[in-house]
Design a protein that fits this description.
Blueprint (H helix, E strand, L loop, with lengths): L10 H16 L11 H15 L2 H4 L2 H19 L4 E5 L6 H4 L7 E6 L1 H10 L8 E6 L5 H11 L13 E5 L8 H10 L5 E10 L2 H4 L18 H4 L3 E8 H7 L8 H4 L14 E9 L1
Parallel strand pairs: 1-2, 1-4, 2-3, 4-5
Antiparallel strand pairs: 5-7, 6-7
Helix pairs in contact: 1-2, 4-11
């Protein structure tokens, strides 16, 4: 890359960056998950972004931890009766290829057409473990989003049945939206077919937000009232996994951050002053 050029040129580049972290975790002898397709999807650019990341991000501890936590919460949701996953802004995620899904399980990915086309080319010939459906949609367009949700929650799959307990996943998405857009999405997802909504959230992470690394993909969502923002919109957390605490338990927290994982963590339901990051699974009230 040219000197001085930001390693992330747009939000889609973050998908390649995250795939590179998954590839590097897969190569570890003590890996927390196996994603053999990640290296192909990351490409040279994804690995270059990792190599240029600030030190606190370079080993990918937060991405690796959130990947593991989301994997586990998806399995928990399926055990609790989840019959469909809607992955919004799916990026270069490969969970339909690597997770143990029930026979005929419907998994739907939505993202911008250019990124989905790139993914289709890269994964041509690979077989997902469930029924994988991809839809190109601009989730910032309320009309297109609502039309997508009508279809994605309707009769699909081998049985042609509609969803009754769907899980919506927005991994690596909400950071880049403003509060009004997140609120609009929260209201749009309040449907009887949707039982859970899962997201990774960061509050008061000012060093990340002001990093030159994100100048072309600015991180916007940081509500002053933390999780109370979602509560006011009718979504209550049923699982909240603190990333730093879980990273330490999983052996992925950098040594210089481990002491902080033993301190009392901020209450994300109240106005926050200190940094907080987590994977949260919500349910509608």
């Amino acid at each position: 890359m040219a000197g001085g050029q930001a390693p992330i040129s747009n939000v889609s580049d973050t998908a390649r960056w995250v795939a590179a972290y998954r590839a590097r975790e897969t190569a570890r002898p003590d890996s927390l998950f196996q994603d053999p397709l990640a290296d192909r999807l990351a490409g040279e650019h994804g690995h270059a972004i990792v190599d240029q990341a600030p030190r606190i991000m370079r080993n990918g501890w937060s991405v690796v931890t959130r990947t593991k936590l989301i994997d586990d919460l998806i399995a928990k949701s399926i055990a609790e009766g989840c019959d469909r996953v809607l992955n919004l802004a799916a990026g270069l995620d490969t969970r339909p290829y690597r997770l143990a899904l029930p026979a005929g399980f419907v998994w739907i990915e939505a993202d911008l057409p250019e990124l989905l086309a790139e993914k289709e080319r890269a994964l041509a010939g690979e077989t997902p473990r469930g029924v994988l459906i991809r839809r190109a949609v601009d989730l910032a367009d309320p009309s297109a989003r609502d039309t997508f949700l009508d279809e994605a929650l309707g009769p699909l799959g081998p049985a042609g049945a509609p969803a009754t307990k769907a899980l919506v996943l927005t991994e690596g998405l909400l950071f880049y939206l403003d509060e009004a857009t997140v609120a609009d999405l929260a209201r749009a997802l309040t449907r009887p077919e949707i039982a859970w909504w899962m997201a990774d959230l960061t509050f008061r992470m000012d060093r990340m937000r002001t990093s030159a690394m994100f100048e072309n993909a600015p991180m916007k969502f940081d509500p002053a009232d933390g999780l109370a923002f979602f509560g006011a919109l009718g979504w209550q957390p049923v699982d909240s996994e603190n990333l730093l605490v879980q990273a330490r338990k999983l052996g992925r927290a950098p040594w210089y951050l481990r002491p902080f994982s033993y301190l009392p963590q901020p209450d994300p339901r109240k106005p926050l002053r200190n940094p907080w990051s987590a994977v949260v699974r919500f349910r509608p009230e």
